[in-house]
Amino acid sequence: MRVIxxxxxxxxxxxxxxxxxxxxxGEALVMRPxxxxxxxxxxxxxDLIAGSLPPAAATLRDVARLDTGVGQAFAEVAVRAxxxxxxxxxxxxxxxxxxxxxWVEDGTVRGTLQLGRPAWIAEATGLPVVSDxxxxxxxxGGQGAPLVAMTDALxxxxxxxxxxxxxxxxxxxxxxxxxxxxxxxxxxxPANALLDAAVRHFTDGAAQYDEGGRRAGAGxxxxxxxxxxxxxxxxxxxxxxxxxxxxxxLPYLLQALAAAPVxxxxxxxxxxxxxxxxxxxxxCRAHGVTRLVVSGGGAHNPVxxxxxxxxxPGVDLGSSDALGLPSDAKEALAFALxxxxxxxxxxxxxxxGTGARRAALxxxxxxxxxxxxxxxxxxxxxxxxxxxxxx
Length: 391
What we know:
With about 400 residues, this protein is of the alpha/beta class. The chain has helices at about 45-50, 60-85, 120-125, 135-140, 150-155, 190-200, 215-220, 225-230, 250-260, 265-285, 300-310, 330-345, 350-355; strands spanning about 1-10, 15-25, 30-40, 90-105, 110-115, 130, 165-170, 170-175, 185-190, 290-295, 315-320, 365, 385. The protein contains 13 helices and 13 strands.
């Protein structure tokens, strides 16, 4: 089955698409990646997303505009993916949409909202669309995140020691696969969320992120600010747990700076990069991780990666590319995989990772132009991911 995965992360800068051929062969799920592409959001839509995210308030009109605008943006990228990545023919589109709110109270997820109406994608491509992938796990008592854990667990299954996968998006999340134990997955805390917010603040919006980590690299870590940030009770909470920009945003950072003022913006950025490195490293040490496979936008920040290496001496640190999962495409491929599992009648969430009562079938299906025809339900879930080819 040829599947296209679509997503936009908590940095909300672009729509990412990745395509792959997927097939179940006994205990293995065989994936042949076909390529990926990225398209920035239109400026007006990006501004609307930014102005609607917590702690800002949004009207129902804003929500409707976002649902349509994101859906149309995803539809345009899906059409390109069919043409440019799939040679003009695909079987399924899987859309994560744009997360606007992840509702957490006292460690329990009450709901989660991803916008981007799938009907626009189905109409533009003519293909069935799997969307709303997180709600099923939340309804089953889970965190609804991190859902990339299924792909991580299958990809790491054959590695020795205690491997873990780390995704450095707006929020950092890890999946740990220890021998003889169920996979464990959780959000460790902010990765790019606070860094990007700080850059936009200090440059009055002229820059969106710290390109190449240059400004963080030029700064010095401020111990007092780092102590204030590390005092957040989220870090002491046990897994499973999840978080988002509704917690780690600019007012949160400004409150920390009020408690521990820092004169130089570059020092703030250096401190925020160290915060991510320390919290990720603490999580890895707590679970005896011996190899860390990294993906996401933060993997391109040499300062952050250098700090991770400093915090985790003796841990093999490398890119997910080495496993055949391109770092920039991994999340979109992971959602393609989840949608493939859904249409084959297989659960996509790991209860030990999300805390759900059961392994839920994920998502809702929007038919394309043709009558909906699903495969016969698969007999057993895969136990490993076998990646072939490359692009």
